[in-house]
Amino acid sequence: MTDRIRDFLRANPADGPRLVVDLDVVERNYHAFAHALPDTRVFYAVKANPAPEILNLLAGLGSSFDCASVVEIEQALATGAGADRVSFGNTIKKERDIARAFDYGVRLFAVDCEAEVEKIARAAPGSRVFCRILCDGAGADWPLSKKFGCAPEMAPQVLEHAQRLGLVAHGVSFHVGSQQGNVQAWDSALAIAADIFREMAERGIVLSMVNMGGGFPAKYLRAMPGVPAYGDAIFESLRQHFGNQLPETIIEPGRGMVGDAGMIEAEVVLVSKKAANDEIRWVYLDIGKFHGLAETMDEAIRYPIRTERDGDARAPCVLAGPTCDSVDVLYEKTPYDLPVSLSIGDKVLIEACGAYTTTYSTIGFNGFPPLASVVI
Fold first, then answer.
1. Which of 159, 265, 302, 311 qualifies as a FRET site for 85, CA 20 to 30 Å off?
2. What distance in Å separates the CA atoms of residue 53 and residue 376, rounded to the nearest whole number?
3. Does the pLDDT of residue 143 top 90, yes or no?
4. Which residues does the UniProt record annotate as the domain Orn/DAP/Arg decarboxylase 2 N-terminal (predicted)?
């Protein structure tokens, strides 16, 4: 927790959970990425946290934007950033949304199959496309499924089809999985990308760009390498697989940009046991899976938690949310050690919540309002 967040919470008490984001941390993270990979363009993943204050700050620092929808494109353009700083990175797009993005001036689109290529050829003629390939995500706390990307051996066919339809076959993209703890995770993907570059050259098509995606971690409970370690490992892999002919590169940090910039202040609603001899307490908070903490699903993301009683004796407890849905349990398989003295009405601070919290919050499930957000 930063001093600025601590001071804000003390000076501004509130009823109900709220996310507080410190822009100074966001700025520091941006400079860390820009310094670690100085020849790589940063495309902030807007989906992580689209707060206007964050987008405006990043635009002013020179960031570009990875967008998953027309609304996100509009949010990025509202900062004053030009459309040349926007990538429509979702591989699943309605043709009318492609046309809308094209009207806004966007000329960079993600694809992973021929059908998507054909939509872009019709709705955004002459645009640049990059083909996303599948990546196993080993080493990530939140591995990605096969929903996005195609088998690497299919990518040349997709890109050649794009070139044939009048688009520009621009490059290859991949994602090594969210909250990736292995700095070497990009190596095998870059090796595959280099192979695709060579095969396309043999087909008479010169690719220009590798989109290395996101995956850069926030600071949760488990220790993670710093941004410089990722930068060094990625640059070494680029040199190894591409030699002196380095491609244009971009990264799409989201969680790594804003995750550790935010903290949620929540409140204990109830502390109880399920049986008289039960050693495990249930601690119910006024925030749960449906109001910003969706990434606790399968306990994939384990947030650091502080309380007002952290100096007291501790014991394991199950953490759950306030709704009438039985899946609204945050941590049960691996209970959290929290102070035995924790009581109804106590404040709980959930750290590293700047990413994927407000955007995962429901509009009004069970009548609870969306997660409030303050950017300082």
1. 159
2. 9
3. no
4. 24-258
The β-bridge relationship of strands 128-132 and 108-111 is parallel
Residues 267/286, Cβ–Cβ less than 8 Å: yes
364 phi, psi to nearest 5 deg: -175, 40
Residue 268's alpha-carbon distances to 16, 347, 365, in angstroms, are 10, 6, 19
Decide: helix, strand or coil at residue 360.
helix
Which token pair is 370? 């969306």
DSSP class of 216: P
What's the rounded Cα separation, in Å, for the pair 165 and 146? Answer: 26
The pLDDT tens digits of the residues spanning 252-300 come to 999 999 999 999 999 999 999 999 888 899 999 999 999 999 999 999 8
> d(Cα 332, Cα 330) in Å, to the nearest integer?
7
Averaged over 306-323, what is the pLDDT? 96
Active-site position among 67, 150, 324, 353: 324
Catalytic annotation present for 324 = yes
Q: Which domains does the chain have, with CATH numbers?
A: 89-253 (3.20.20.10), 260-375 (2.40.37.10)
In sequence order, the 6+-apart residues with CB closer than 8 A to the CB of 185 are 137, 138, 139, 140, 176, 177, 215
One-letter amino acid at 313 equals A
Q: Is 201 helix (H, G, I), strand (E, B) or coil?
A: helix
Give residue 142's pLDDT band: very low, low, confident or very high (50, 70, 90). low
User: Any residues with CB less than 8 A from the CB of 72 and at least 6 apart, and which?
Assistant: 46, 47, 50, 65
∠ at Cα 289 (285, 291), nearest 5°? 80
> Taking the chain, what is the end-to-end CA distance rounded to the nearest angstrom?
13
